[in-house]
Write a structure and sequence with these properties.
This protein is an alpha/beta fold. It is built from 14 helices and 10 strands. The strands form 2 sheets. The chain has an 8-stranded parallel beta barrel, surrounded by 7 helices. A two-stranded parallel sheet has the order 9-10. The structure holds 3-methyl-2-oxobutanoic acid and zinc ion.
């Protein structure tokens, strides 16, 4: 396997589903899990089995249904959680238990009320217990973003020695900036004995709007798994957005990393998740927002009509969007009006176009977005139709 493959770990159904109002039932979760499998994710974090009977049921059903990806269940570093996750994953072809605990001083002292040494012992114990049930055990060092690197390295070294196959370095509070997060991964890569026996994973939250950048910087410094969600949904400001990291890697071929995501499914799954979770996608959301391929100002429209590459770095078909659009507003120029009228079957000479443009601006100031119907009316008024 190429060293440059980046594994995509989707946690829409676990970290994403923690968002208030986004609760899904088992059938809805199954539909999303099957779509994620079709999309080509490597790992689905299907839920947190100990959290409720409903979540246990969802993880078990996904584990028995979805066979082409690894199915993962979350647990705290607590015996009953790990046993419950193992039970829920019993029918999975490729089960993974994701266990761990906080490692920042903030979490160690004021949440867990343990010592740093006790945290290492608990982490090692949890990994060893999970290993009795499954081969593939991922350890998370919660709040690693705010954990001192030297101590984090000790924790990670100990859990890898205990058998962790993946080590997750979450920026739980979305605190880091890219250079800082990248340095953290680099430090682990250079200072942890046995680090090459495990895959380093990023898990970034978006409190400062850095989740995508931090995940990519993590990869550039040695991580080979990105944890993310569709539309970037998740606690507070959300998680790393799957569509953003996938397309950022794809559009920067010189970085030489790849994922197995079939990007043409991105828009469809974004809509599915948004509708099922009742969570609208903001219009200006990168890659999948309704304005992501819409051009509305005169300068951009003119440049786009001359050559789409002037203002688009992604062909919309590459992410499953039908076509780019030219939105006519009072900021549009003659070129856009001409282009749109031509598409509607009206070929205007310069003089008529100039008159039409003056009339168009009057309409645009009133209606904000000029639709095809408005243009038909305008052509009637000018006796072109
Ligand atoms: O943000 C976080 O630290 C998490 C862990 C449970 C992996 O979601
Ligand atoms: Zn998280």
């Amino acid at each position: 396997m190429s060293d440059n493959k980046v594994f995509i770990f989707d946690t829409t159904l676990r970290d994403g589903e923690q968002v208030p109002g986004c609760r899904l039932n088992t059938e809805e979760k199954l539909i999303i899990a099957k779509s994620l499998e079709e999309l080509g994710v490597d790992i689905i974090e299907a839920g947190f089995p100990i959290s409720s009977p409903g979540d246990f049921e969802s993880v078990s059903r996904i584990a028995e249904t979805v066979k082409d990806v690894t199915v993962c269940g979350l647990s705290r570093a607590v015996e009953k959680d790990i046993i419950c996750a193992a039970e829920a994953l019993k029918k999975a072809k490729r089960p993974r238990i994701h266990t761990g605990l906080g490692t920042s001083d903030q979490h160690v002292f004021t949440k867990l009320h343990l010592t740093r040494e006790q945290v290492i012992e608990r982490g090692v114990w949890a990994v060893k217990l999970a290993k009795k049930y499954v081969e593939d055990v991922e350890f998370y060092a919660e709040d690693a973003g705010r954990t001192d690197n030297e101590y984090l390295a000790q924790v990670i070294e100990a859990v890898i020695a205990a058998g962790a196959t993946v080590v997750n370095i979450p920026d739980t509070t979305g605190y880091c900036i890219p250079e800082e997060y990248g340095q953290k991964i680099k430090y682990l890569k250079e200072n942890v004995k046995g680090i090459d026996k495990a895959i380093i994973s990023t898990h970034c939250h978006n409190d400062l709007g850095m989740a995508t950048a931090n995940s990519i910087t993590g990869v550039q410094n040695g991580a080979r798994q990105i944890e993310c969600t569709i539309n970037g949904i998740g606690e507070r400001a959300g998680n790393t957005s799957l569509e953003e990291v996938v397309m950022a890697l794809r559009k920067h071929k010189w970085l030489d990393y790849y994922t197995d995501i079939k990007s043409q499914h991105l828009f469809g799954i974004s809509q599915l998740v948004s509708q099922t979770m009742h969570m609208p996608v903001q219009p200006n959301k990168a890659i999948v927002g309704s304005n992501a391929f819409a051009h509305s100002s005169g300068i951009h429209q003119d440049g786009f009509i001359k050559n789409r590459d002037n203002y688009e770095i992604i062909d919309p078909a590459e992410v499953g969007v039908n076509a780019s659009s030219i939105v006519l507003t009072a900021r549009s120029g003659r070129a856009a009006l001409h282009h749109k009228l031509k598409a509607l079957g009206f070929e205007l000479q310069t003089e008529t176009l100039n008159v039409a443009y003056e009339e168009f601006l009057k309409v645009a100031d009133v209606v904000s977005v000029v639709e095809d119907d408005n243009l038909h009316e305008l052509m009637k008024k000018l006796k072109v139709a």
